[in-house]
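Have a think about this chain, tokens included, and walk me through the fold.
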Amino acid sequence: MAVNPMKEIYVEKLILNIAVGEAGDRVTFAARVLEQLSGQKPLRSKARYTVRQFGIRRNETIACHVTVRGEKAMDLIERGLRVKEYELKRENFSATGNFGFGVDEHIDLGIKYDPSTGIYGLDFYVVLGRKGNRVARRKAHRGRVGFSHKLKKEDAMAWFQTKYEGTFSK
């Protein structure tokens, strides 16, 4: 039986996020860490509303993120999974076939420690896709992706196991 090339799963993009939780120099240093990792200029994220217990105000810059695609994304995913020892929880996978995980220290990814910057944890979020998904997103002649072609949690978990020989913890 021939394998359908349209059913092959690939990495659309990788989003790296560092949520500092406060404005100021720490966000700037976190942005510098993301720039070292990805080679791209990160975007800053603002607080949606004021939370007095956390000491953040609405529209205050509290995080930064960067979207990486292509070979660089694959390399960063590999480095992140190496830190996690290729072991993820089943809860890390979403119903739409994407997955995410966190790394406690950015220096585990191969960046040299800088005392003036500090140590930051970061979130990896991997968006998986199949060929043909563009029909649901394009402006002209928009269509729908059929149920059998949509990515499911089980598909993403099987892809993770075959691609990275990953395991699942409880």
Observations:
- The beta strands are 9-19, 43-46, 61-68, 87-89, 99-103, 122-130, 167-169.
- The chain is about 25% helix and 25% strand.
- The CA atoms of residues 104 and 121 lie 4 Å apart.
